[in-house]
């Protein structure tokens, strides 16, 4: 690019696209650098907005963030649709969390007791009662939990909406890979075709964020790739009405029904490095467990299998905020909550760029927390 912009966003997944959207809505000139905007983990995801059923022991700070993000989602996608004219597929379907056998139910009961102690609204039901809520479940399920307040969004429709909105806002989509960061404050984003100069740079490249050559050593926060497979099927009639999140002999699986008839089944979590090849075994395991819980999927049409790399961190929380290098910010590490946290991250980073503080719920998730951990004596 010949002309400098106010903000260069390196990475065009949902976090980078929302950051660009929010900054452009505030009047900034923005460029997004990514060879395939909206692909990768953002394309593979299922779009669950599930702060309650994603909660794990010890993730109380992350829970506060995801609850705030879920509450803000309807207004965010309404603003997006107002610019793009396209629906992102937001639906308040609720979730049912299903235990296949007695062992799964015992683990779910213990986790749900912790969630209710935190004030979360759930209902623990027997298998029969759960099937009355969601008749598409198998007759043999042991029981489960209803989280009526959860929702979903069609992540691919949202990406399409974001790309149209960015075009209408004048955001430049630079469909190249960043080859490195050049010296300066803020740094220059290097491309094979030449540099991108900006008043501020936001690193939002997911699992690849810290692989960028020229990144200062202290910013190589521990973001790692965690591969996830998802399957897409299609049915003529709905097989379930809720998002179904199951445990089958300790292994998680989910089934996400779309209004269009698409059904997303997922997802594996595999620590294989930067590997994106799709595995037959992953497809087998996901289909096996999904069919045990939702037998109506047996007649579904096969559509595709996809695999992406989630950006994981040691505490499963995102990495968002200033880096200590003037004009350089980071927004990565969203792991299994990327779609849920993308609008909240985008608004927060756009606020930082305008001189505002991080929202309170994001304050615990700056990059400095990992440096502080490394300084604590063993």
Automatic annotation (TrEMBL):
<dbReference type="InterPro" id="IPR006076">
    <property type="entry name" value="FAD-dep_OxRdtase"/>
</dbReference>
<dbReference type="GO" id="GO:0009229">
    <property type="term" value="P:thiamine diphosphate biosynthetic process"/>
</dbReference>
<feature type="domain" description="FAD dependent oxidoreductase">
    <location>
        <begin position="6"/>
        <end position="350"/>
    </location>
</feature>
<dbReference type="GO" id="GO:0005737">
    <property type="term" value="C:cytoplasm"/>
</dbReference>
<dbReference type="GO" id="GO:0050660">
    <property type="term" value="F:flavin adenine dinucleotide binding"/>
</dbReference>
<keyword id="KW-0784">Thiamine biosynthesis</keyword>
<dbReference type="Pfam" id="PF01266">
    <property type="entry name" value="DAO"/>
</dbReference>
<dbReference type="InterPro" id="IPR012727">
    <property type="entry name" value="Gly_oxidase_ThiO"/>
</dbReference>
<dbReference type="GO" id="GO:0009228">
    <property type="term" value="P:thiamine biosynthetic process"/>
</dbReference>
<protein>
    <recommendedName>
        <fullName>glycine oxidase</fullName>
        <ecNumber>1.4.3.19</ecNumber>
    </recommendedName>
</protein>
<dbReference type="InterPro" id="IPR036188">
    <property type="entry name" value="FAD/NAD-bd_sf"/>
</dbReference>
<keyword id="KW-0560">Oxidoreductase</keyword>
<dbReference type="GO" id="GO:0043799">
    <property type="term" value="F:glycine oxidase activity"/>
</dbReference>
<comment type="pathway">
    <text>Cofactor biosynthesis; thiamine diphosphate biosynthesis.</text>
</comment>
